[in-house]
Automatic annotation (TrEMBL):
Domain RCK C-terminal, residue spans: 133-215
Protein name stated in the entry: Trk system potassium uptake protein TrkA
UniProt domain RCK N-terminal: residue ranges: 1-118
The entry's keywords: Ion transport, NAD, Potassium, Potassium transport, Transport
Annotated GO CC locations: plasma membrane
Lineage of origin: Bacteria, Bacillati, Actinomycetota, Actinomycetes, Streptosporangiales
Pfam families named among the record's database cross-references: TrkA_C (PF02080), TrkA_N (PF02254)
PANTHER family documented for this protein: POTASSIUM CHANNEL PROTEIN 2-RELATED-RELATED, TRK SYSTEM POTASSIUM UPTAKE PROTEIN TRKA
Amino acid sequence: MHIVIMGCGRVGSTLAHILEDKGHSVAVIDQNPEAFRKLRAGFKGRRVTGFGFDRDVIAEAGIEKASAFVAVSSGDNSNIISARVARETFGVDNVVARIYDPRRAEVYQRLGIPTVATVRWTADQILRRLLPEGAEPLWRDPSGQVVLAEVETGATWVGERVADLEEAARTRVAFLTRMGDALVPRADTVIQDGDIVHVVARADELERINAAVAARTEGDA
């Protein structure tokens, strides 16, 4: 898919390289043309000089065919404004913005714009939202055998108990992220729309767990 990244700092350039290596087309926007020097010599994506909230600039970056938009410049205001332009003007559903101020981040999470805040950690967080099917776990123990990972529950699990999901997937739910806040659930906690479910499991069990959760249909509810 085509992905537009606003901000060619360490996070933006890291994301651009990882996404290109995964076979995606990438366009990077930055107001400072010198910032593009962070991109490797063989980078094949588009470099666009300008502000990510300028409609002409993001149009030049290919926003109209983009499947995702990422705002990781150094300014909170620029990031959130450009993210809203991408979503509200150009209809890009998959939008992620980096916000340094945690109070602002909570507000934008509640508006439905995912926000994230070390460089590699930020890149991994964004990749998990852009490419959930190929995401790395959130955490691994030193042996690499036990992981903490997100699972995609989908709408069919809304209204169901955490205990039911644990039974179906034969796993342990560590916590939920709800409206930007972490929640340690009880067995009778009901999964709500927008909840992100995090499980702790053996690394070699993740594929089975994701398949078990995804296998649920409307008729099972």
